[in-house]
Specification:
Strand content: 25-35%
Order of helices and strands: EEEEEEEEHEE
Shape: elongated
Structural class: mainly beta
Radius of gyration: 23 Å
Number of domains: 2
Length: 140
């Protein structure tokens, strides 16, 4: 016989008159650190998360608030955000240098193959803010 949990998880309470249950979440006790996403220990059936993790299964990274004055590399063109990926950073000459792939034409990351352009940005602090200095002329 199969043992299956059925549930309807929804942010709004929604009674299901034709079923024997309603919205909810099925939570069961942990049995090992694997149940705690390897980010904590299972103690008496409950996850005790390591300092940087939270959640029933230690699945959520606890991040510090962002200092918006030090946003690092934020690619924009004509006042609009652009997608980027693959930033590589190196310290040289008292400044931090980063090379990344930026997607031209505001196409988004899904169009990387046709629209990637290598950009170079520098900063005096590794946390930014960064200034774009140049871009490679040929697309990759």
């Amino acid at each position: 016989m199969f043992q299956t949990c059925w549930g309807h998880i929804d942010p709004v309470w929604l009674p299901l008159h034709s079923a024997t249950m309603d919205s909810g979440e099925v939570l069961w006790p942990c049995t090992s650190a694997l149940d705690c996403s390897l980010n904590g220990e299972c103690i008496a059936g409950a996850c005790s998360c390591s300092a940087a993790w939270t959640g029933h299964r230690c699945q959520t990274l606890t991040l510090q608030p962002v200092d918006k004055s030090k946003m690092g590399f934020v690619p924009t063109k004509d006042g609009r955000n652009m997608s980027s990926w693959g930033g590589s950073v190196q310290a040289a000459g008292g400044r931090w240098h980063m090379w990344a792939a930026r997607m031209d034409f505001h196409c988004g990351i899904q169009a990387w193959e046709e629209n990637s352009r290598i950009v170079h940005a520098t900063a005096s602090d590794p946390l930014g803010p960064c200034e774009r200095t140049d871009a490679a002329e040929s697309r990759i």
